[in-house]
Amino acid sequence: MVYRSAFPMLICDDLARSIAFYCDALGFTVTYRFPADGDPAYVAVDLPDGSKLGLGQVAPDGKGVHGLPQRPTTGHAFELCVYHDDVDTAVADLERRGHPVLQAPNDTPWGERIAFVADPDGNPVMITAPA
């Protein structure tokens, strides 16, 4: 047996707000939603290059289908790296949309320009490009 693909799934406190961040601000497209009608409990989103994320609403009982608690979390177990052609322009747009900038754009010793913003649940999202 060979594993063929993987993608991270985020549990969101406010799914609609997270969908807006990942789709409207970062350019993902919703490719699947459950349930199909009404407010979704889960959506899959993709970027044009095939990168995928799953976004799910915290369950009403606070437990996932695996039975483990979804909240509270401690620290940030998740960070997302998203490539963009122009880090400064991308971060300025995200800030204009009201998303907190955690670290302003800067050049790294390993040859990338990076910045960090927070998604609606406070997860760090690194915006990066070659320096």
Automatic annotation (TrEMBL):
The enzyme class is lyase
Query: Recorded E.C. number(s)?
Result: 4.4.1.5
Describe the location of the VOC domain by residue ranges.
4-130
- One Pfam family named in its UniProt record: Glyoxalase
Extract the PROSITE patterns matched here.
VOC
Q: Which UniProt keywords apply?
A: Lyase
MF term (GO), any: lactoylglutathione lyase activity
**Protein's name in the database:** Lactoylglutathione lyase
Task: Give the organism, scientific name.
Answer: Saccharothrix ecbatanensis
